Amino acid sequence: MYNYSYSRNKSNIYRDKSVQCGCHPIESQRRLEICINSFIDELNFYNFDLVISLFKKVSEDNSLQVDYIDQSSYNLIVNGSDQELIKLEKLFTSGDLEEFLKNIKTEYFSQVIIESVRFREDIEVIKKCQLIQKLRMEEIDKNRLIKDYLTGVDLSGANLQGINLSWANLSNIDLQGANLTGANLNGVNLNKSNLNETYLIQVSLVGADIIEANLMGSDLTKSVLMGTNLSSANLSGVNLSKANLSGCNLSYTDLSWANLSYANLSNCNLNNAILQRSCLNKTKLTNVDFNDANVINARFADNQGINDELKNTLIQRGAFFDN
Question: What sequence ranges are listed for the domain TRADD-like N-terminal (predicted)?
């Protein structure tokens, strides 16, 4: 229970007339960032709704809601009508908000102190953070990601480490430079997506579809891609060292300058793949189909699954063997 002991006489001068007359306030095109800087050890993600209820109480606005919570800094991004956000900002500037919160006692935390309040207009950045938070908490139906959430959303550079997006439809989206280290992407649809220079270290991509995607310069060290369809994808310059690609479809895939050392490519289809200047040092190549693959200046060494006949054929087609 809350003990409210503060009289809010001054705050009435900020009342939103659109609420008084029964009109629905128009959502603001900007957001209010509220930085909580004290007693943060007593707060956690799940009782921030109690904090926002205090803001609703003092501002007399039930439409206020939190768009996004930065748990690392305990910043709240608050959404509502422009009139009500202005009212809340003025309450902070005048000191009324601080005085009101000073008298609040709850069973969850002793006091809430606000360090700063400021307007933000970088709505697209806020929407990205909001979406990532919902993805982490698995609050979104993965089958409806593209239709309902990802249209026009740029996730390039996003921190998605360890996230579970298995069997999600992520086709055609921009994940350039994103960090997906340790993520579960089993069965995901990444067809025609932009994964240029993306961090995919130790990612599980078992049975995924990554057809015609751009992964140029990405890091997939120690990732698991068993049975993944990478046909016609651009993997130029990727790091696939110690990755498991057994049973992958790599036909017509560009693997030029790729690092495939110590990787497992057993039973892979490399038909018409481009392996120019790629490194296949100690790569496992049992039952690999090299039919019409471009191996000019590709370097092989100590490969399991390469017999003398196939070795000579690859050398004749421009490959180098260091053993």
Answer: 47-102
**Separation between Cα atoms, residue 269 and residue 229, nearest integer Å:** 10
In a domain, 190, yes or no: yes
Say if residue 215 is in the same domain as residue 90: no
Let me know whether 191 and 268 are in one domain: yes
pTM: 0.71
Q: In whole angstroms, give the CA distance from residue 232 to residue 121.
A: 40
Provide the domain count of the chain: 2
Residue 112: domain span: 29-120
Instruction: Determine, yes or no, domain membership for 4.
Output: no
The answer to whether position 7 is within a domain reads no
Quick check: 196 and 216 in contact, CB under 8 A? yes
Same domain, 162 and 265: yes
Same domain for 168 and 39, yes or no, is: no
CA distances from 278 to 43, 180, 229, 274, 292 (A): 52, 24, 20, 9, 16
- Beta-carbon contacts of 152 under 8 Å, excluding residues fewer than 6 positions away, are none
* Crossing angle between the packed helical segments 82-94 and 48-59, to the nearest 10 degrees: 90
Residue 185: Cβ-neighbour burial (10 angstroms; 0-12, 13-18, 19+): buried
For the chain, what is the mean pLDDT? 81
Q: Which residues are within 8 A (CB) of 144 and not within 5 positions of it... i.e. 6 or more apart?
A: none
User: What is the Cα–Cα distance from 200 to 220, expressed in whole angstroms?
Assistant: 5
Contacts of 311 (CB under 8 A, 6+ apart): 300, 321
pLDDT in tens, 72-128: 666 778 888 788 888 888 888 988 888 777 766 655 556 667 778 888 877 777 777
pLDDT digits (tens, 9 = 90+) for 14-28: 223 333 323 344 456
